[in-house]
Amino acid sequence: MYYPINLRIDDMKIVIIGGGKVAYRKCINFLAFNKRVLVVSKEFIEEFEGIKNQIEMIKDSYDEKYIKDAFVVVAATNNKEVNHKIGIYCRQYNKLVNVVDDGELSNFTVPSFVKRGDLLLSVSTGGKSPSLSSKIRKDLEEVYDESYEEYVKLLGQARQIIIKNTSDIKERRKKLKELLDLNSDELRKIYSR
User: Fold this and answer.
1) Which residues lie across from 72 on neighbouring strands?
2) pTM across the whole model
3) I need a labelling partner for 101 at 20 to 30 A (CA). Which of 7, 16, 73, 155 fits?
4) Domain boundaries, given as residue ranges, for the chain
C-alpha cells in the first residue's frame, strides 16, 4: 500500500533511464513541476527533441554511475532485466525508485494529477487501474479549470492578510472558512490592496 506524500524536488537529482514513450511521459510529469531531469538512453523517441532544452540527455546504455548520486530514479527501459537491476540497486541504496514494469520493486508511483498553479489534485488506484485514474483526472480537469490557478493564489493572499490582522483564533477560523464562499472577483476586491 502506498502512502500519499508531496515531495519538494527542487534540490533532488532525478534520473530517468529509458528513452521511449513511458520515459517521455514520466519526464513531462517532472517538467510540469519545473524540474530539470537527466534522461539516459541509447535511443530516444522523437518527442524528446521538443524538450531537449529543458532536460539533460545522455546517449548511453544504463550504468550505475548515472544514478549513484540521484535521489529519485525512474527505470523505464524496454528491458525488464535492466529495469530490475536498477530497482534492486536503488532499493539497496535507499533511493526512491519507480520501476515501470515492476510495481512490487517500486517504492513510489506517480499518480495521475491535475495541476492548477499551487492546487494539486492527484488520483491513484495503487496501480490496479491506471485507466480509471486517467478518467477521474479528466473529470477533475473539467471541474477545476485554469481559473483555479488565480483563485488559489487569491485565497493565499487573503489568508495571509487575515492571519496578520486577526489575533482571535475563533474569529480567524471563521473568516478563513468564509473565504471559500467568495469568488475570484470578490476576493480581488476585498483583499487585493
Assistant:
1) 14, 96
2) 0.84
3) 7
4) 14-110, 112-143, 147-191
> Could you tell me the three cell numbers for 132?
480509471
Q: How far apart are CA 171 and CA 168, in angstroms?
A: 5
Q: If the chain, 193 residues long, is cut into consecutive pieces of 10 residues, what is the mean pLDDT of each piece?
A: 86 96 95 92 97 96 97 97 98 96 90 93 88 95 95 94 94 94 90 69
Asked if 37 contacts 55 with a C-beta cutoff of 8 angstroms, the reply is yes
What is the distance of C-alpha 135 from the center of its chain? 18
Distance between CA atoms of residues 179 and 159, nearest Å: 8
CA–CA distance from 149 to each of 60, 97, 120, 184 (Å)? 39, 30, 10, 10
Residue 177, φ and ψ in degrees, nearest 5: -65, -40
Amino acid at 158: A
Cell of 113: 494529477
**From residue 180, how far is each of 137, 157, 172, 184, 189 by CA, in Å?**
23, 13, 14, 10, 15
Residue 116 neighbours by CB distance under 10 Å = 19
The partner residues of 14 in beta bridges, in order of sequence, read: 72
Fold exhibited by the domain 14-110: Rossmann fold (3.40.50)
C-alpha cell at 25: 511521459
Q: Which residue from 165, 184, 58 is spatially nearest to 119, judged by alpha carbons?
A: 184
Architecture of the 112-143 domain: 2-Layer Sandwich (3.30)
